[in-house]
Amino acid sequence: FVEVRRLCVAPDERNTKNVASFLLGHATKACWSMGYNCLVTYTKAGEDGCSLLASGFQIIKLAKVSKYADGSHDGGVVTWIKFRHAPTSQKATAQSKEMLTERHQFLEVV
Known about the structure:
two-stranded antiparallel ribbon; alpha+beta; globular; 3 helices; 4-stranded mixed beta sheet
């Protein structure tokens, strides 16, 4: 498998909508062409993961998150996966969205 460590898109005055999904899609195609069958990546607890959902990734693990009285939090890494020969179902996408919504409500992420 290949691990996607970090994808950063710097916002600027130009339209950067969907750039992260575009980059993930092309990175995925490159990995498939090199013979890999699985991609794994991670997001922090408060990140929305929209580009991963749009690129066909699904959540496989939510790590425990601790929320403190001052509003800060610790931990809570979200593990995402995408398989080459297993298209992401609508059910898996819906479950991933639901898990993210619950996590963000717990963390009070806007």
